[in-house]
Each structure stands twice: as C-alpha cells, then as structure tokens.
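Course exercise 7: structure representation. Students receive a sequence record and must write out the corresponding structure in token form. The form below is the worked example handed out in class, using Aldehyde dehydrogenase (469 residues). Read each field label carefully; the graders check that inputs and outputs are placed in the correct fields and that the protein name is recorded exactly as given.

STUDENT ID: A-19
EXERCISE PROTEIN: Aldehyde dehydrogenase
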Amino acid sequence: MNIVENPYLTLFQKQQAYQFEVGNTTVKARLQKLNRLKAALEVTYRSQIHVALKKDLNKSITETDLTEIYPIISEIKHVKRHLWHWVKNQKVPTPLSLFGASSYIKYEPKGVCLIISPWNFPLNLTFGPLVSAIAAGNTVILKPSEMTPHTSALMKTMVQDLFDETEVALVEGEVETAQHLLNLPFNHIFFTGSPAVGKIVMKAAAAHLSSVTLELGGKSPAIIDQSANLKTTARRLIWGKLVNCGQTCIAPDYVLIDKTSQDVFIDHCIKSIEFYYSQLPETSNSYGRIVNQHHLNRLKSLIDDAVAKGATVAYGGNIIESENYIQPTIITNCNNEMRILQEEIFGPILPIVNFRNTEDILHHINANHKPLAVYIFSDKKSFIKTISNNTRAGTTVINNNLIQFNNHHLPFGGSNNSGIGKSHGYYGFKAFSNERAFMKQHFKGISEYVTPPYTSIKEKIAALTVRWF
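STUDENT ANSWER:
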C-alpha cells in the first residue's frame, strides 16, 4: 500500500510536527507526562487494571500489582531520579591533532516511535517502554496485542485521558493494523514478542532504515549443579516458572540437572507447587490461565508430542479446556527430538534434561540459539565461572531467576535470536535517543596549518602529526 493511503499517516505527521514545537520535549515536559502516567497507575485506574487483567489472564490482584503495575512505577521513579543527569551534554576528549576545538555528545529524541507490545504482560510491556520513550523526548504510537482485549481497551482509555494524540496515541487492531503501522517511516521501533515476528518487524524497519529494539525470547535454561541447595532451588524455580502461568519470556524454559539429583529436585518442586497453589491449582486464586484456546492447544500438543516420543509426565498434565487451564506439569526423559526442547514453551510446563558433565551442559546450550537468560544454581565458583564464560546470553542470574527484570541499573535484552538492543533505565533512555556528536572550533587549530598548497614545511608538519599525534 502506498504510504499516502495509510490510515495512520495523518497521526504520524501530527506527531512529527509536535517534535519541533517549542517546549514540547523539554525535560520538564517529559517529567510532567511521566507524573501523569504514574498517578493513573497508582490511583486513578488501578482497580480497573486489576479487573481487566483478571478477565484476560485470570491474574490475581497481588500478581497484577507486582508484575504489571510495580515495574512501570519503579521505572518512572528511576527515570525521575536520573533524567536531569542523563540529558546533560556529555563532554568527551578532543585529540591534540584537533587542538583548538572541544567536543561533546547531546542526547536528542529519535523522533516518532512505534511500540508494539505482547499479550503476556500487556500493561507492563506497553507502558514500560513508553516510559523510556517519553524520557528521551519522543512522540509515540502504541500498538498492544489484540489477545488481551480488556486490558488493551483500558489502556486506550488511559492514553486518551493522559495524553494528546500528538504526544502519545494508542491504536487497537490485529495483524492488518500492525502492517499499516510498519509501513510508516518511524524513527525507532520497539517490539516485544517472538523471534519469528521480530524478523518481520526488522524487515519492515529496514525499508525505512528505522532503528529497532527487539525484545524476543528463546529457550532459557536453568542449570542445577550438585552443590546447589535443591529445596531452595526448586522453590525459586517453580515461582519463576509459574508466574503468569508460565507465559513469561524470561521464565526458565527447561532444567538441566544431574540424574542422581533429579528425583529429590522433583519432590521439592511438587511440594513448592502445592505450597504456592494447593494440591488443586485450578481452585487457587493465585494461579493464572492460558491466554486463549489456541495457545492451550499448542501447549497440549507439546506434552502429547513429548509423551509419544518417550517422555514421562512426572507431575501434572491435567487440562480443563473450558477454562484455558493447564496444571503445572513436570516432564522427564526429554530429548532433543521432542518439540518441547525445540520450541519456546511459554506455559506452565517444565521439561527436565539430564547431563553427565559440564561438557554436556555447554554442548546442549551452545548448539541452540543464544537464550534470553541463563540461570545457574550452584555454590561452586568454578562451576559458575565455567558456565558463564563458555555460554552467551542476554542476561545471567545466579541462584535465582526473573529478578533481573526489576533492576533498572542493568541493561535488559537478548542477543541475536533472543533480542537486539537493550532496555530499562539508562539503557532504555539510550535506545530511544540519538547520540548527536558536536564539535566547536574555538581558535585556529593545527589542521589549518596543513591546508593546500602543500609546501615542504607543511609536509613536515603532516609527518609530525602522523608520528606524534
């Protein structure tokens, strides 16, 4: 489709014009916008957010507060503490060969940005990147997932209440809507979702040479060494695996453990599940649901495929289709022929893979795409060092999981197939900023003594410059 016929072209052009109206992108204006968003999340819309996420994902009030609302508010507070420092011109050295000049970097807004967010944490992963985009002084069009309609509709109401569409606008719709938006020449695109769709987004961005941040996913392993405390490890891993019913990009996707430790570990996992969600998780107010029937069927097919190829369901496996419910499930005797070890699970299923030695672990991880996260459970420094130094990943956490997301001082993101670019805190601010280089000539420098015509004296000056400067 011709860009002139694009239904969102007018909105895009309005946001372009807003960028250059005096006062719109000052630090004061950015902080005012963030304060409005913070108040809306904390007070004005908080109860409505609880209701919407309960309807879409059966999220409890507590889980919504901790995984959807808190991360955004925490990000806003972090930005407010540091933004004045981040936006200052950053002085950098000027080489002696350019004597007479000074240099600095100015962080300026990239311009009009597109944020395409997923369904699993619809509020967090829409408004979280928005905080960084606003902090950097951009205008933004948001495209949330159609799979969580109640939350998307509420976010649209919030955006219309908090911002003029020239500042921030939210567009609802399905694939066709995303395609229309991706046809526009955005200055930056921030996408959270699967690697498959990430490739489509990156291809569309390439047509306009738009920069991208791609927060993707992958097979994040949890590696359990014999020195680890199995009870503590199981408790932490089960929490991390079952938050949001396992529909988390940084959830531990599978476990690598020594065969001799497996049974004890599984026993602790079962006890942890029953402690968190009772022996009947379907009755627990703390346990979520799969987003829709399509994803429920996908997860069921992963279990069926694994069992057909020799895996054992060590715990769970119960499914209630009318409720989009899958019981927390642990699967053993897994091998690489099974889809459950080839595809990102994105659900409450935990496959267990046995290893004989450290070489087995490294081979298994490095034979696949770089994971978004590697989780190492061990009390041995040498083991932790070996795994860390011989694998590549977006993030690594030792003796826990998921907690890295809430440290705004760390860059968050993957590597290659698990993501491109970083977000959160200063790294999110940089992702949405252009580092504009500035130089100022104060008085006559060396370069002006070596302009044509090239005499023998100038030849000597040039030779000295090459040798000494």
